[in-house]
Specification:
The complex is a heterodimer.
Chain A: E1 11-20, E2 23-33, E3 38-43, H1 49-56, E4 61-63, E5 66-69, E6 72-75, H2 82-87, E7 90-93, H3 105-112, H4 127-130, H5 142-154, E8 160-164, H6 172-187, E9 191-195, H7 199-203, E10 208-213, E11 216-222, H8 223-228, H9 230-238, H10 240-256
Parallel strand pairs in A: 3-9, 3-10, 7-8, 8-9
Antiparallel strand pairs in A: 1-2, 1-4, 1-5, 5-6, 10-11
Helix pairs in contact in A: 3-5, 9-10
Chain B: H1 2-10, H2 12-32, H3 39-56, E1 58-60, E2 69-71, H4 78-101, H5 109-131, E3 146-149, E4 152-155, H6 156-178, H7 180-190, H8 192-197, H9 202-228, H10 232-236, H11 239-248, H12 254-274, H13 291-303, H14 329-345, H15 348-373, H16 381-398, H17 405-422, H18 431-449, H19 452-455, E5 461-462, E6 467-468, E7 471-472, H20 484-506, H21 508-518, H22 520-525, H23 530-556, E8 558-559, H24 566-579, H25 584-592, H26 598-605, H27 613-627, H28 632-643, H29 651-659, H30 661-683
The chains are: A alpha/beta, B mainly alpha.
């Protein structure tokens, strides 16, 4: 079944299993991100979201059955390494951003751009960075750093952008702004796979979403469905019993009220 | 007045090679995250190859055993010889990168230091085997006719070299400042993961940089060897002033490093001139020049207090060697019994080899305490032992103190010296401590051991023969053969020290030492006085090394600077690592491999391969550091246990252990594997 995986122009992954040492923390995950599509990846801490993103770009130990990026179909079990992933148009903005803090903003972009491209064009979307070109990345604020991290990923001309914890440590207003610009990129044809803790905020922007729990995908639904599936989401985050507890607390509170 | 200026300018010659090597060290630290102690040796081997090509037309490959000398032609010009040597140097750089530095990228600081020290030993051994130990003075390459400027006549080559250094510095600066390659190197040095995600291959960059610095070392070596002279030891130790220059540039700033290198050369040359003045104190005439880099390094590291840039590897280095529980006393008894039997059974040079091995055990035990338990890397243990050696000479000849008092006093002097060396260790650790202690060892060797005022000139420092209660314990019998009594004395002393170290390991102090080794901050948060523990560790280790040095003094009867040369100390550290630096059995294994020890005697006496001993031990060290960082002892111990499982008192424990082996291994190695595999996957196609 997985052998005849049809490329969709974006990213399609079948049967991704990843882990650390002898323990698999992500098991048999399928993910599709079409061109121009923003897809959310939700789940509690430890559900395997970061591991999934990392293994898509070949960081960490992982195996998969098949995946397709753009028009290219790649059969497992060994995934791409990070450099192949980069070359074939998968870019990751990691949780810790991994900026080159001793390099200036302009140098960060130049060093990441493929030869012969114009790295500073991307700044049209990030006017704030335009005025900070000569500043060392380590001296930027958290929001500016996240912008630079996204800009740096974009200069590699990805087909699909993976973003891990976009909002980590950022003010809500900045997150809003970043999400808005990501929406713009997507309307230009970029596929985006977004890991985000602020589920309700993210649901306003994503087209579809996956919910992970204990290393597997337990829900695959449109954003409208996810918005209405509050309880199921809660159970993915809190576990069935906890969700049931929460319900019963609700019920009890309702009763006393 | 003019002479003062003249000597300043003459110093530009050696200054250029310091600057060139210093810049190479900075680049290597950026690109590979290592401090390459072998870098001076790389310049040296290229200079020898070039000299041999010009002199005899022979191309000498850097290996031994296989045919290694090819005659290229007579009267080769510089334009033929130089490219050949540069190609060879770049191949050497490539080989070292692929075989040593790349596999070690996620290794602990200790393993990295030991590996590069091992490479240095190997290169030096190869040069000594192929070119001999004699100093050469190659003919000039640069025009060296004198020019007269401002009424001063001095050779022009100094100027050209200084200019060349400046040009290289500017080129390198521009390379790492402006080009994509340079930016990528700097980017990858900060975060390899970030680099990979941006499509940069840190591995390829590191490889290109390795080749680049190897060529640069060769060029600087070749150009300045006509001025500095070419001898294996001196040239290899150019690494020390080069390290000083690199540290003044905080392992980051190429321009500052270049200026510092030239400055050190000028300062040394000026000091050399000053030592010829009548007012210069006699005691400081020898070696004061070599204390310049030491002082600079201490100032740069300790006083500035600024942190050196830390390289962000793909994986966190597992900083510590695993530490097993202290050995069982029975294991030590087996070792000692073997030693005792060997002393009784063997005669002549073999008995002497056993005696030397037993003395070596004492010295190796000092590494077990300092590096194995306390986690501090010192390259100055040779100097510490030497202080005791020379002290025992003074104490026995000038103060006529008898046997057990003299070595104890001498060991106390060594303890004081070791604590002094340990003071920088209170603020700095890891590789930086290795750098300071190496510079300190060089300074002590030149300033103290080579000082005729201390050592008594050409005759060497004599040591009276030991005796106790009328019992003659002298190392040689009346017929000039190795004596049994001295061997037994060494056995007793080595045994006492081994059990003392075991007691420390199992006691309160041992737990404190190990807690400091594991994490200084956590240790101090638990109420452990880190400063006190460190000083205790340095003191204990120096005392043990001091006892060893004293016994070595007795053994040799007359000691000179070569007994405790810097390279002797480096080889000691390297071998103690090879044996297994965290265990007492490791000290026994390491001691057998010492020069003059059991393995040396067998190599020389049975296979006639004595001249390869240094080379083989260096190779062994490099291989161990790359492939099996815990050293031989734990490995041999495991083999032994699994082989003899099911016998004796420990059979139950042993057999469960071997039955559980597969499972055990998986669990034990899980952490390692994660690290390895992450690194492997990520680096697979770089």
């Amino acid at each position: 079944m997985t052998d005849d995986l049809e490329p969709n122009g974006g990213l399609r992954i079948r049967g991704l299993t990843a882990g650390y040492g002898g323990v698999d923390v992500v098991r048999n995950v399928d993910i599709d991100v079409g061109p121009g599509e923003i897809v959310g990846l939700f789940g509690a801490n430890g559900a395997g979201k970061t591991t999934t993103l990392n293994s898509i770009v070949g960081i960490g130990r992982s195996t998969l059955d098949t995946f397709a990026i753009g028009d290219l179909v790649h059969r497992g079990p060994k995934p791409f390494g990070p450099l192949d992933a980069n070359r074939h148009g998968i870019a990751l903005v990691p949780e810790d951003r991994c900026l080159f803090t001793q390099l200036t903003v302009a140098e960060n972009l130049r060093v990441s751009a493929p030869k012969g491209s114009a790295p500073l064009d991307v700044l049209d979307h990030f006017p704030l960075l335009q005025s900070l070109l000569k500043r060392k990345a380590g001296l930027l604020s958290g929001g500016e750093q996240q912008m630079l991290a996204i800009a740096r990923a974009l200069v590699t001309r990805p087909k699909v952008l993976l973003i891990d914890e976009l909002s980590l440590g950022l003010a809500p207003i900045i997150v809003q702004r970043l999400l808005a610009s990501i929406y713009e990129f997507a309307s230009d044809g970029l596929g985006v796979l977004l890991v985000e803790q602020h589920v309700n905020l993210a649901l306003q922007y994503v087209h579809r979403g996956y919910v992970m729990r204990n290393g597997t995908v337990v829900m695959d639904a449109s954003s409208a469905e996810l918005m209405n599936a509050g309880e199921a989401l809660a159970s993915a985050y809190l576990g069935d019993a906890a969700a049931a507890d929460a319900e019963s607390i609700d019920a009890r509170e309702g009763a006393t009220l | 007045m003019s002479q003062y200026v003249l000597f300043l300018l003459l110093g530009l010659g050696s200054g250029a090679v310091y600057a060139g090597l210093g810049m190479g060290l900075v680049v290597q630290y950026k690109a590979l995250g290592i401090i390459n102690f072998a870098y001076g040796a790389m310049a040296m081997i290229a200079s020898f190859q070039y000299h041999e090509l010009r002199q005899h037309g022979d191309l000498v490959m850097p290996w031994v055993g296989l045919p290694s000398r090819v005659h290229i032609g007579d009267d080769l010009s510089m334009w033929v010889a130089l490219p050949i040597v540069l190609v060879l140097s770049s191949l050497l750089g490539l080989l070292l990168f692929v075989a040593v530095y790349r596999p070690m990228r996620a290794a602990s600081p200790l393993a990295k230091v030991v590996a590069s020290v091992g490479v240095m030993i190997v290169l030096q051994a190869i040069v000594v085997i192929q070119f001999g130990t004699e100093a050469r003075l190659p003919e000039a390459i640069l025009p060296n006719e004198t020019v007269t400027v401002l009424g001063l006549a001095f050779p022009r080559d100094r100027f050209i070299l200084a200019l060349f250094t400046a040009v290289v510095a500017i080129v390198l600066w521009a390379l790492y400042r402006f080009t994509r390659f340079g930016l990528a190197t700097r980017a990858a040095s900060e975060t390899e993961r970030g680099a990979l995600l941006s499509g940069i291959s840190p591995g390829r960059l590191a490889m290109v940089n390795s080749v680049l610095v190897a060529v640069s070392a060769a060029v600087f070596g070749i150009l300045s060897s006509p001025i500095t002279g070419l001898d294996p030891t001196k040239f290899t130790l150019f690494i020390v002033p080069a390290l000083a220059a690199a540290l003044v540039g905080r392992l980051k700033l190429i321009s500052v490093t270049a200026i510092a290198g030239l400055g050190i050369g000028m300062m040394q040359s000026e000091l050399l001139f000053l030592t010829t003045k009548s007012w210069f104190p006699d005691w400081a005439r020898s070696g004061v020049v070599d204390s310049v880099p030491f002082i600079l390094i201490v100032v740069a590291l300790v006083a500035s207090g600024k942190r050196l840039p830390v390289r962000g590897g793909l994986t966190e280095a597992s900083a510590l060697l695993s530490l097993r529980r202290g050995e069982r006393p029975s294991v030590l008894l087996v070792w000692l019994a073997l030693g005792g039997i060997a002393l009784f059974v063997l005669r002549d040079q073999y008995r002497m080899a056993v005696t030397v091995t037993l003395i070596g055990v004492m010295i190796m035990l000092s590494f077990v305490v300092l590096t194995g338990y306390l986690g501090q890397i010192s390259l100055a243990q040779g100097a510490v032992a030497g202080v005791a050696g020379f002290s025992v000479s003074k104490i026995t000849t000038e103060f006529d103190l008898p046997f057990p008092i003299a070595p104890l006093l001498a060991a106390l002097v060594a303890t004081a010296a070791g604590c002094l060396i340990g003071i920088p260790g209170l603020r700095i650790r890891g590789v930086q401590l290795a750098v300071v202690t190496l510079a300190g060892a060089v300074a002590i060797e030149r300033l103290v051991f080579n000082n005729p005022v201390v050592t008594g000139g050409v005759t060497g420092a004599l040591v009276e023969r030991p005796s106790l209660f009328g019992l003659d314990l002298s190392p040689l019998t009346s017929s000039q053969r190795p004596s049994l009594s001295f061997g037994l004395l060494c056995l007793v002393v080595a045994g006492a020290l081994a059990f003392a170290v075991l007691a420390v390991r199992r006691g309160e102090l041992g737990r404190r030492l190990i807690s400091v080794r594991s994490n200084e901050r956590v240790a101090s948060s638990l109420g452990i006085d880190v400063v006190r523990v460190k000083i205790s560790g340095f003191a204990l280790s120096s005392f043990i090394a001091g006892i060893g040095g004293s016994m070595l003094g007795y053994h040799q009867g007359s000691i000179s600077a070569t007994s405790f040369a810097v390279f002797v100390g480096l080889q000691w550290l390297a071998l103690s690592y090879l044996g297994g630096i965290t265990s007492i059995s490791g000290a026994f294994i390491a001691a057998m491999m010492l020069p003059g020890g059991v393995s040396d005697a067998v190599l020389t006496g049975v296979w006639h391969l004595g001249q390869y001993h240094l080379l083989l031990s260096g190779l062994g060290v490099v291989v161990t550091a790359v492939a099996n960082p815990e050293g031989l002892a734990p490995k041999i111990g495991d083999q032994f246990r699994s082989k003899f499982a099911g016998r004796g008192r420990h059979s139950a424990a042993a057999s469960t252990r071997s039955a559980a082996q597969p499972a055990d291994n998986t669990v034990d190695r899980t952490a390692d594997n994660t690290v390895d595999r992450t690194a492997e996957n990520a680096l697979a196609e770089i």
